[in-house]
From TrEMBL, chain A:
The keyword Iron-sulfur applies. Its cofactor is [2Fe-2S] cluster; [4Fe-4S] cluster. GO terms for cellular component: membrane. One of its GO terms (molecular function) is 2 iron, 2 sulfur cluster binding. Its main location: membrane. It comes from Granulicella aggregans. Residues 139-168, 186-216 form the 4Fe-4S ferredoxin-type domain. This is NADH-quinone oxidoreductase subunit G. Belongs to the complex I 75 kDa subunit family. It holds the Pfam family Molybdopterin. Residues 80-119 form the 4Fe-4S His(Cys)3-ligated-type domain.
From TrEMBL, chain B:
NDH-1 shuttles electrons from NADH, via FMN and iron-sulfur (Fe-S) centers, to quinones in the respiratory chain. Keywords: 4Fe-4S, Flavoprotein, FMN, Iron, Iron-sulfur, Metal-binding, NAD, Quinone, Translocase. GO terms for biological process: cellular respiration. This is NADH-quinone oxidoreductase subunit F. One of its GO terms (molecular function) is quinone binding. Residues 333-378 form the NADH-ubiquinone oxidoreductase 51kDa subunit iron-sulphur binding domain.
UniProtKB/TrEMBL annotation, chain C:
NCBIfam families: nuoE_fam. Keywords: 2Fe-2S, Iron, Iron-sulfur, Metal-binding. Belongs to the complex I 24 kDa subunit family. Its cofactor is [2Fe-2S] cluster. This is NADH-quinone oxidoreductase subunit E. CDD domains: TRX_Fd_NuoE. GO terms for molecular function: 2 iron, 2 sulfur cluster binding; metal ion binding; NADH dehydrogenase activity. PANTHER family: NADH DEHYDROGENASE [UBIQUINONE] FLAVOPROTEIN 2, MITOCHONDRIAL, NADH DEHYDROGENASE UBIQUINONE FLAVOPROTEIN 2, MITOCHONDRIAL. The lineage of its organism: Bacteria, Pseudomonadati, Acidobacteriota, Terriglobia, Terriglobales. The keyword Metal-binding applies. Binds 1 [2Fe-2S] cluster.
Length: 798, 438, 169
C-alpha cells in the first residue's frame, strides 16, 4: 500500500494507506484510548472511547475503524473529545462495583487508568447498582459480571484468536452479558461453565477485572510482585512468560504467569500451561534437602557438603576402578543449553564416558543431517506467523504446540495464509486449512515418498476408499506454492524425515521446522546429549574441533536403552540422571539398577528418584538463568524468577560434583580473566581457553565471568564451539529471540541406520510429562475436562 | 382487522388498490399489476433509475434518502451476487403503515422488489417482516407463491429470459433489526446488531454482496411511479420531496388511521381535518410527528408542512410518518418515560453510550415519575441525552436521545413542576406497572 | 422424513425445517425463523430444541443461545396456550393501553410474563406491535385485536377459553 500523509494534533504523519488511525497514531506515539479495540481481532467500535475529531466530518469518528487517508486532519484530545470520553466512563461507572481495592486488575485496569485520566469518578446516579454473584467458569476462569464493560474482547479472543468459541454474548441492551458455552441448566452442578482449552486468553484480553484467573485471584496486588520475563518450561514452542514473584520466608513464590508486555516470540499469546502451570514450583512435595540412602536402604537428609562429597568420591572411584565406560548419564529436556552442554562435557571429559542420552522427542539428528550444507532453510517460529503457505505433516499443534497453532491461525486470519495439512488424524487445525489430506494409519512413509515424487506407494497413503487423486492434487497445489514452511511432526523420523526435507530443499522458497515437546528438547539435542553426537550434531567418530578440544574417545557411547540394558547385565557402575525420569518414561525395571550407583538431580520423588542412592534437590527452569532453544531453533534467555531455599541449579551441582571429583575446573568451566594463561599452555589442546574467552568478551564489550557457577561462561564456549550457535550475545541479553540453525556439517560423513529412539511425549493441553503431575492446576484442569466429557456423554445418552 | 379510513384530501397512489381485493393475483393484474415490471424489463436498469431519480422519491423508512440515488450507488460489476432487501420490520412506535400495505397490496411489494432487482442487477430479493406480523407474512407468502405459479417469479419470468426469486423472512422481535445493517445480520441468522459503516450496504451488504435495502412503502410505491412516470409522481409532492406518503395518525384524534397525503401537506390540517381533530374536543398539547424518535412539537408549532425538509427546519423529523397526537391531559414526564423505556428495552447493547445511556435515563425518569426526583435529575437527563447524541454506534442512540432532549427542553417547566408535586396531566402509568414490565 | 433422526418436532415442522435450511444462500439464514417456528411447535424453545436446531443449522449451541436470547419474542420457558400480549407503547398508552393491561391482569389474575394456573393464558406487556392507528391493541398468539375496551377483552377471553378464538400460526 502506498503511504499517505495526514495530520494528527498538528503533527504531519505518514502511514501506509488503509492503516487504522488508532494504529497509525500509536506508531507515532499518540495514544488513543480504547476498550474494545484489540489489534488483530475484528473491529467492534462498541466502546466509543477512541472518538476523535476529523475535519469535514459532522460527528466524532472512531479512530479504531477509520483508515488513514491522504490529507486527513485529526484532533485527538480536544475538550469536546475529553467530554465524550468522560461521559462514556461515567456511564460505565454507573453500574460498576468500584471494588478496585480488592479487584485483581487493580493497578492494571484500563478502566481505572481512563477514569484517572478523564476524571469521571463523580457519579450522579441515585439508583442502586446491579449486583451479581461472581461465577466460577472453570478452575482457572472466574467471571465477575458487574465489572464487565462489554468490550467483547474475550468473545473475539476465544473465537477468532483461539478458534474455540466458548464465549458468547446473550440477551440484549443493558441485560447483555458474556456467557460461557455450558449454561447453568445444562450443567450437573447447575452453574455455568466454560468447556474449552482453558488458555486464559480471555482473562488476558479483558481490560478490567471481569475475568480473573483461578491461580491468581485475591492473592496479591500487581505492585507487590516482581515481574520476571522468562521462558515457559512446558512445550517446545518456547513462549515468553512473565512470572509475578513475591518474597516468602523460604524463597520467592511465583504467583502469576502471563505475557505482561505482549512482547517476545509469542506476542499476545500464552496457553494455559504457560499461564497457570508454574505452580509445581510451589508444590509442598518438593525435595529441598539432599538425600542419601543409608546402609539399610533408607533415604536420609544430609548436608549439601556431605552429599556432594559422597557423590564426587563415589563417581571418581567408580570411574577409576571400573572405567568411564561403565558410567551412564541421562540429561533432561528442561535443562538450559548451558546445563546440557556442561553435562555432556562433564560426562565426556570428567566421567570419561560417551554413554550419554536424553529422552528424545523428535529426530533432530536426521533433521540436522538433512539440512546439512544448506543455509536459510530452517524456519523460525516467527516464520509461522508470516509465511504465505504452510504445509503441516503430522503433529497436532493445537494440543501439543499451542503457540504454533495460534501463529498459524493468526496468519490465516490476518494474512490469508494457506495451510495444507496431511495427517493420520483429523486434527482441529484442518478447520483453518485450505487443504486437508487424511493420511491412512502408518501412511507417513508413503506420504514422504509421494512428496519426493514417488507415486508407487500412493495406495497405502490415502484412507481406504478415498480417491487417490486427492493426494495428487494436494501435492500439485503444494508444489505450485512459491514460499512454504514445512512443519513436521515428530512422527516423521529417519529416512522419511530426510525424504520430506530433501525433496523440499530442491524447490525454491522452502523452509523447515521439526516440532518437539518440552522447552529445551531441541537444545538437549543441539547440545549433544547424545551418545554418538557432539554438540552441533558433530559425529563423534569424526575428528572434529570439539573432539580435539575435549581430547576424548571417538567411539559412540551407549544410548538410553543400551544404558539400561547394561545396568540389567550388571555392567553399569553408576548412573547420573539430571532432570529426567527415564524409569517411568522407558518402563525400566527397577531391579535393573540394583547394582548401579544412581545419582538423581530432581525436584520431586519421581519413579527414577525413588531408586536413587543420592537425590540432589534441583531448581527448575523458573529458578535459574541461561538460555533455551525451542523446536524451531530460536534461542531465548531464561531468567531466574522464583527461588526455593535448599535447592540448587543443575549447573551448580554439576560443577560442584566435578570439583569434588578433582577435575580441572578451569578446563570444565572457563571463567576468570587471563589469570592462569600460562597454566593453559601446558595443557595442550585445551590451552588458553579461559584466555580466548576473555579476549572474545573484551572484543564484544562484555565483562568476563569470574565465577565457575556462572552459566554465561559456558555460553561463551557454546558460542565459540557449537556449529550453528553463532549467537549475538547482546541480542540475547536484551530479551530478543534469535533464530539459529545448527545443521550437521556437510563435509562430515553421515551416519545412517541410527536406531530410532524417538519417543514423542505427546503432551496435550493439560499434561506436561512427569512435571505436569506436580501441578495442582493441571490436575484440576484434567479432572474438569473429564467431568465435562462425562456430562456431555450423559446428555447424549439421555 | 385494521379499519380502512379515507378522506377527500387524500391522494391515493400507493393505497390505490387498498380494499379492492388486490391480494388476489388476478385482481392485482386487472388493476394494472405486474405491468410496471414488464416495462422495466423492456426498458432496462438505467431507465428505471432515471425514473426513480425524477420521481423525487425519498425513502419512507425514516431517513428520507433519495431512492434513485441509492440504487445508483450499487456497482454495476460485482463478483458477489447482489440482493434486494425489503425492510418490513416496522417497529417504530406510532408507525403501522407497512402493516396496511402487506395487508391490502402484497403484490405491489413483490413487484417493487423485482423492479429494484432489475435496476441493480440482482436476482434475489428478501422481504423481511417483523415476527409479530405473522398473519401478514402468510399473506405475503401466499402472494409470492401465486406469483411463482403464474411464472412472474422464478426462472424466465414473463418469458423474458430474466430470473428473479423472492424469499420471505420472519423476524422474532427486535426494533433494532429495522436498522439496515442489523437487518442483514438478522437475515444471516445472527444477533440483530448493526455493522460498522463504511462499507455501506450498496457495496458490501447481505452475505457480503452489494445490497439495496428499502422500506416496504418505498418499494410498494415503485410500480406506481414507473406506471405514472417519475415527473408526474414528483409533482404530487413538495419541493425535493416527491409524491405522496402514508401517514399513520394515532393517539388523541377523532379518526385515527393510515392516510395517504401529498408530501408537504400541512400538519395542522392532517390533525384537524384529515383525522378529525383532537378527540373529544380537548385541547392539543403536543405532537410527535414521525414516530417516537422524532422530537416533539408543541401545540403552537404545528403549522408546518409534512416533508423531510420542512420538518427538519422545524427542528424535528418526518421519520416514518407516524403522527402521534397528545391532548392536554397527557403528562409529558410520563410520556417521556414511556418513550425512553422503549429505547432502553430495544437497545441492542452493542455500544456503551446507547446501552448505558438509555438505561440511566430510564432509571432517572422512573424515579422522577414515582415522585423521588430532584431538579438536578432534569439536568442529568439532559446531560445524558446530549452525550449520547451523535456518539453511538448506530442511530438508535440518537433515536432515544432526540425525543428525550425535545421533552426536557420544551417542557422543562413541566418536569420541574412535577418534581415539586404539581403534576400536570393525568398520570396513567402506575409505579407498580413499571416495575412489572421493564 | 426428517433429515434428523429422532427429531423433537412434529413431522410437518421437521419437514418444513428440512426445506427451510436449503432455500437461502447460507444455511444459517434459517436460524431466526426456525427458532420462532420451533417455539410455535413446542410452546417455547427448549434445550432440546436448541440442540436440534444447532445440528440442523450446523452451528454451535452457544451460537443458537446467543441469537435466541436477543429476540424478544423468543422464550425459553413455556407460556400459556394463549399468550396475551398487550401493547402499552405511546399510541396505545394514549388510548387506554395501560387500562387494558390492568384489566387483563385483573381478569386473568396474573402479572407480566406469568401463566394462569390452568396454563390457558399467559400475559405479557409488549412494545409497539404496529397497530398504533387502531389502538389500543393486543395480540393473542399471532392474532391482532384492535380498538380494545375492557368489555371487548372479556368477550375475547371467553372465546379463547371456549376454543373459539382465532389462532393462526
Ligand atoms: C433503530 C432503527 C430502526 C429502524 N427501523 C426501521 C424499520 O422498522 N423499517 C424501515 O423501513 N426502516 C427502518 N430504519 C431505517 C433503515 O435503517 C433504512 O434506512 C431504511 O430501511 C431504508 O429504506 P428507505 O431508503 O426506503 O427509507 C431504522 C433505522 C434505525 C436506525
Ligand atoms: S469480560 Fe472483559 S473482555 Fe469480556 S466483554 Fe467484559 S470487559 Fe470485555
Ligand atoms: S476502540 Fe474504537 S470504539 Fe472501542
Amino acid at each position: 500500500m502506498p503511504d499517505v500523509t495526514f495530520t494528527v494534533d498538528g503533527n504531519k504523519l505518514t502511514a501506509p494507506a488503509g492503516t487504522l488511525l488508532i494504529e497509525a497514531c500509536k506508531s507515532a506515539g499518540i495514544e488513543i484510548p480504547a476498550f474494545c479495540y484489540y489489534p488483530g481481532l475484528s473491529l467492534q467500535a462498541a466502546c466509543r472511547m477512541c472518538v476523535v475529531r476529523i475535519e469535514k466530518m459532522p460527528k466524532l469518528q472512531t479512530a479504531c475503524t477509520t483508515p488513514v487517508a491522504e490529507g486527513m486532519v485529526v484532533q485527538t484530545e480536544t475538550p469536546e473529545i475529553a467530554q465524550a470520553r468522560k461521559a462514556t466512563l461515567q456511564l460505565l461507572l454507573g453500574n460498576h462495583p468500584l471494588d478496585c481495592p480488592v479487584c485483581d486488575a487493580g493497578g492494571e485496569c484500563e478502566l481505572q487508568d481512563m477514569t484517572f485520566k478523564y476524571g469521571a469518578a463523580d457519579s450522579f446516579y441515585a439508583e442502586p447498582k446491579n449486583h451479581r454473584e461472581e461465577q466460577k467458569w472453570s478452575p482457572v476462569v472466574y467471571f465477575d459480571r458487574p465489572r464487565c464493560i462489554l468490550c467483547y474482547r474475550c468473545v473475539r479472543m476465544c473465537g477468532e484468536g483461539m478458534d474455540v468459541f466458548a464465549l458468547g454474548i446473550q440477551n440484549r441492551g443493558s441485560s447483555s452479558v458474556i456467557a460461557p458455552n455450558v449454561p447453568a441448566q445444562m450443567s450437573p452442578d447447575d452453574l455455568a461453565h466454560v468447556d474449552c482449552e482453558q488458555c486464559g486468553m480471555c482473562i488476558d484480553a479483558c481490560p478490567v477485572g471481569a475475568l480473573t484467573s483461578g491461580t491468581y485471584r485475591y492473592k496479591t496486588r500487581p505492585w507487590e510482585m516482581n515481574h520476571v520475563a522468562t521462558v515457559c518450561t512446558h512445550c517446545g514452542d518456547g513462549c515468553k512468560t512473565t512470572l509475578g514473584v513475591r518474597s516468602t520466608s523460604d524463597g520467592a513464590e511465583i504467583v502469576r504467569g502471563d505475557n505482561r508486555d505482549k512482547s517476545g516470540i509469542n506476542g499476545d499469546f500464552l496457553c494455559n500451561k504457560g499461564r497457570y502451570a508454574f505452580d509445581f514450583a510451589n508444590s509442598p512435595d518438593r525435595i529441598t534437602q539432599p538425600l542419601v540412602r543409608n546402609s539399610s536402604g533408607v533415604l536420609l537428609p544430609v548436608s549439601w557438603e556431605q552429599a556432594l562429597e559422597h557423590v564426587g568420591k563415589k563417581l571418581r572411584e567408580l570411574r577409576d576402578t571400573r572405567g568411564g565406560k561403565s558410567i551412564g548419564v541421562v540429561g533432561g529436556n528442561r535443562l538450559t543449553n548451558e546445563e546440557a552442554y556442561l553435562l555432556q562435557k562433564f560426562a565426556r571429559t570428567v566421567l570419561q564416558t560417551n554413554n550419554i542420552d536424553h529422552h528424545r522427542t523428535a529426530d533432530y539428528v536426521s533433521f540436522a543431517q538433512a539440512l546439512a550444507g544448506t543455509t536459510g532453510k530452517a524456519a523460525s517460529q516467527r516464520d509461522i506467523e508470516k509465511s504465505p503457505a504452510i504445509f503441516i505433516i503430522g503433529g497436532d499443534p493445537t494440543n501439543q504446540n499451542p503457540l504454533t497453532a495460534w501463529n498459524l491461525r493468526s496468519n490465516v486470519r490476518l494474512n490469508k495464509a494457506r495451510i495444507y495439512i496431511a495427517n493420520t488424524e483429523e486434527i482441529k487445525l484442518r478447520r483453518n486449512a485450505k487443504a486437508f489430506l487424511h493420511v491412512a494409519p502408518f501412511g507417513y512413509s508413503a506420504l514422504a515418498d509421494l512428496m519426493s515424487g514417488d507415486d508407487s506407494t500412493l495406495e497405502s497413503l490415502v484412507q481406504p476408499g478415498t480417491n487417490k487423486q486427492v493426494a495428487l492434487d494436494f501435492r500439485a497445489a503444494l508444489r505450485a506454492e512459491e514460499e512454504v514452511v514445512v512443519l513436521i511432526g515428530s512422527e516423521l523420523r529417519g529416512g522419511d524425515l530426510k525424504k520430506v526435507i530433501e525433496f523440499g530443499t530442491k524447490l525454491p522458497g522452502r523452509k523447515f521446522a521439526l516440532l518437539s515437546d518440552y522447552v529445551n528438547s531441541r537444545g538437549a539435542a543441539d547440545m549433544g546429549l547424545l551418545p554418538d553426537m557432539l554438540p552441533g550434531y558433530t559425529p563423534i567418530t569424526a575428528g572434529s574441533n570439539l573432539a580435539t578440544e575435549y581430547n576424548i574417545a571417538t567411539e559412540p557411547g551407549l544410548d538410553m536403552l543400551e544404558i539400561f540394558d547394561a545396568a540389567g547385565k550388571g555392567e553399569l557402575s553408576a548412573l547420573y540422571v539430571v532432570g529426567a525420569n527415564p524409569v517411568a518414561r522407558f518402563g525400566v525395571d527397577p531391579a535393573a539398577l540394583r547394582n548401579t550407583f544412581v545419582v538423581v538431580q530432581e525436584m520431586f520423588l519421581t519413579e527414577t528418584a525413588a531408586l536413587a542412592d543420592v537425590i540432589l534437590p534441583a531448581a527448575n527452569l523458573y529458578e535459574k538463568s541461561g538460555s533455551v532453544t525451542n523446536s524451531y531453533g530460536d534461542l531465548q534467555q531464561v531468567n531466574k524468577a522464583g527461588d526455593r531455599a535448599g535447592v540448587r541449579t543443575d549447573f551448580e551441582m554439576i560443577v560442584r560434583i566435578a570439583d569434588k571429583m578433582g577435575a580441572n575446573m578451569r578446563a570444565l568451566v572457563p571463567f576468570g580473566k587471563g589469570l592462569h594463561a600460562d597454566m593453559g599452555q601446558t595443557r595442550g589442546a585445551q590451552s588458553g581457553e579461559a584466555d580466548r574467552h576473555a579476549v572474545w568478551l573484551t572484543a564484544n564489550n562484555l565483562e568476563p565471568r569470574l565465577s565457575p557457577f556462572d552459566p554465561m561462561a559456558i555460553l561463551d564456549e557454546i558460542n565459540r564451539l557449537v556449529p550453528g550457535y553463532s549467537l549475538l550475545r547482546l541480542q540475547l541479553l536484551s530479551g530478543n529471540d534469535q533464530h539459529l540453525s545448527p545443521a550437521a556439517p556437510s563435509d562430515l560423513v553421515q551416519i545412517t541406520n541410527r536406531r530410532d529412539l524417538v519417543l514423542p511425549a505427546n503432551d496435550g493441553l493439560f499434561t506436561s510429562g512427569t512435571l505436569g503431575r506436580y501441578s495442582a492446576m493441571l490436575a484440576d484442569l484434567q479432572q474438569n475436562a473429564a467431568s465435562r466429557t462425562a456430562a456431555a456423554e450423559q446428555t447424549a445418552a439421555d | 382487522m385494521p379499519t380502512l379510513v379515507s378522506h377527500p384530501d387524500e391522494v391515493k397512489v400507493i393505497s390505490r388498490r387498498f380494499g379492492m381485493g388486490a391480494t388476489d393475483i388476478d385482481k392485482y393484474v386487472e388493476l394494472d399489476g405486474y405491468k410496471a415490471v414488464q416495462n422495466a424489463i423492456a426498458e432496462g436498469p438505467e431507465w428505471i433509475i432515471n425514473v426513480m431519480k425524477a420521481s423525487g422519491m425519498r425513502g419512507r423508512g425514516g431517513a428520507g434518502f433519495p431512492t434513485g440515488l441509492k440504487w445508483s450507488f450499487v456497482p454495476k460489476q460485482s463478483e458477489k451476487p447482489k440482493y434486494v432487501l425489503v425492510n418490513g420490520d416496522e417497529s417504530e412506535p406510532g408507525t403501522c403503515k407497512d402493516h396496511v400495505i402487506f395487508l391490502h397490496d402484497p403484490h405491489a411489494v413483490i413487484e417493487g422488489t423485482m423492479i429494484a432487482g432489475l435496476a441493480i442487477g440482482s436476482k434475489l430479493g428478501f422481504i423481511y417482516l417483523r415476527g409479530e406480523y405473522r398473519y401478514l407474512l402468510k399473506i405475503m407468502e401466499k402472494a409470492v407463491a401465486d406469483a411463482y405459479a403464474k411464472g412472474f417469479l422464478g426462472k424466465n419470468i414473463f418469458g423474458t429470459g430474466v430470473d428473479f426469486d423472492i424469499i420471505t423472512q420472519s423476524g422474532a422481535g427486535a426494533y433494532e433489526v429495522g436498522e439496515e445493517s442489523a437487518l442483514m445480520e438478522s437475515l444471516e441468522g445472527k444477533r440483530g446488531v448493526p455493522r460498522i459503516k463504511p462499507p455501506f450496504p450498496a457495496v458490501v451488504g447481505l452475505y457480503g454482496g452489494p445490497t439495496v435495502i428499502n422500506n416496504a412503502e418505498t418499494i410498494a410505491a415503485v410500480p406506481h411511479i414507473l406506471l405514472m412516470g417519475g415527473e408526474a409522481f414528483a409533482k404530487l409532492g413538495s419541493e425535493r420531496n416527491g409524491g405522496t406518503r402514508l401517514f399513520g395518525i394515532s393517539g388523541h384524534v377523532e379518526r385515527p388511521g393510515v392516510y395517504e397525503l401529498p408530501m408537504g401537506y400541512s400538519l395542522r390540517k392532517a390533525i384537524y381535518d384529515v383525522a378529525g381533530g383532537v378527540k373529544g374536543g380537548k385541547k392539543l398539547k403536543a405532537v410527535v410527528p414521525g414516530g417516537s424518535s422524532c422530537p416533539v412539537l408543541t401545540a403552537d408549532e404545528i403549522d408546518v408542512g409534512l416533508d423531510f425538509d420542512q420538518m427538519g427546519k422545524a427542528g424535528t423529523m418526518l421519520g416514518s410518518g407516524g403522527i402521534v397526537v397528545l391532548d392536554e391531559t397527557v403528562s409529558i414526564v410520563e410520556f417521556a418515560l414511556r418513550t425512553i423505556s422503549f429505547y432502553q428495552h430495544e437497545s441492542c447493547g452493542w455500544c456503551i453510550p446507547c446501552r448505558e445511556g438509555t438505561d440511566w435515563i430510564k432509571k432517572t425518569l422512573t424515579r422522577v415519575h414515582a415522585g423521588g426526583g430532584s431538579k438536578k435529575d432534569v439536568d442529568n437527563v439532559q446531560y445524558l441525552a446530549e452525550n449520547m447524541l451523535g456518539r453511538t454506534f448506530c442511530p438508535l442512540g440518537d433515536a432515544a436521545a432526540m425525543p428525550t432532549l425535545g421533552f426536557v427542553k420544551k417542557f422543562r417547566k413541566e418536569f420541574e413542576d412535577y418534581i415539586d408535586g404539581k403534576k400536570a396531566g393525568t398520570p396513567i402509568i402506575t409505579v407498580d406497572q413499571l416495575v412489572g414490565a421493564h | 422424513m426428517s433429515t434428523i433422526a429422532n427429531t423433537i418436532f412434529s413431522p410437518e415442522m421437521a419437514a418444513r425445517f428440512d426445506k427451510l435450511v436449503t432455500i437461502y444462500p447460507v444455511r444459517r439464514s434459517a436460524l431466526v425463523p426456525m427458532l420462532l417456528y420451533a417455539q410455535d411447535d413446542l410452546g417455547y424453545v427448549s434445550d432440546a430444541a436448541v440442540a436440534e436446531i444447532a445440528l440442523r443449522i450446523e452451528i454451535l449451541e452457544l451460537d443458537v443461545r446467543n441469537v435466541l436470547s436477543y429476540y424478544s419474542m423468543l422464550r425459553t420457558k413455556p407460556a400459556g396456550k394463549y399468550n396475551v400480549q398487550v401493547c402499552t407503547n405511546i399510541s396505545c398508552m394514549l388510548r387506554g393501553g395501560y387500562e387494558i393491561l390492568d384489566h387483563c391482569k385483573h381478569k386473568l389474575g396474573i402479572g407480566h410474563k406469568e401463566v394462569t394456573p390452568d396454563g390457558v393464558f399467559s400475559l405479557e406487556e409488549v412494545e409497539c406491535i404496529g397497530a398504533c392507528c387502531w389502538a389500543p391493541a393486543m395480540q393473542i398468539n399471532y392474532d391482532f385485536h384492535d380498538d380494545l375496551t375492557p368489555e371487548k377483552v372479556d368477550v375475547l377471553f371467553q372465546m379463547y377459553k371456549d376454543g373459539q378464538g382465532k389462532d393462526v400460526k
